[in-house]
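hiii, so i know i said id send this last week but things got crazy w the move. better late than never?? heres the sequnce for the chain we talked about at the cafe, plus the structure i predicted for it. fair warning i was half asleep when i ran it
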Amino acid sequence: MKLLTIAVMISAVVAFAQDKTPQTERGTVCWPLHFAGVTVGINNDAEAQRLLGKGVFRPDEGHTGGRYYLDAKRTATLHVVDGVDQVVEELTVSSGIYPAIKPNERAAAVSNWFHPEEGFGNWRALRLGSTENEVLKNLGEPKEKVKADRWVYETTCACELPEYLTQIAK
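okay and structure toks below
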């Protein structure tokens, strides 16, 4: 079975410090990477479980483990990988059932709250199965092409309002 991986959610870590990277840097987007209610760099494993269920856990992925979820129709897989302090560091959405999910685990992986048709990207215009040209038009060139069908984008906070404090003396 050929798996098509949506690359905009892959291997992106949200920086907590103010990033001075210009918005035009290749492979960066200016919004938190998220899917199915889970936001990379913000949510942790416990929150992902509250949103999606237990899924199928693999302790040897990322820093602290990864979970696999299937949609109710079993047409797509959501892979959530945790980093330091169990904070989500990677989201991957793929069509089909990912081979790491064994047939006897599929029922446990089903989440009624994972909807692969959910939009993402700028203006939520991309979908699982979007063409390469649609992704390029919406997000620009990726930061890195790991494989022909696996592209990496990173998020920056450069377009956020500047953080500052002003004290007005009376």
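btw The chain is about 10% helix and 25% strand. thought thatd interest u
miss u guys!!
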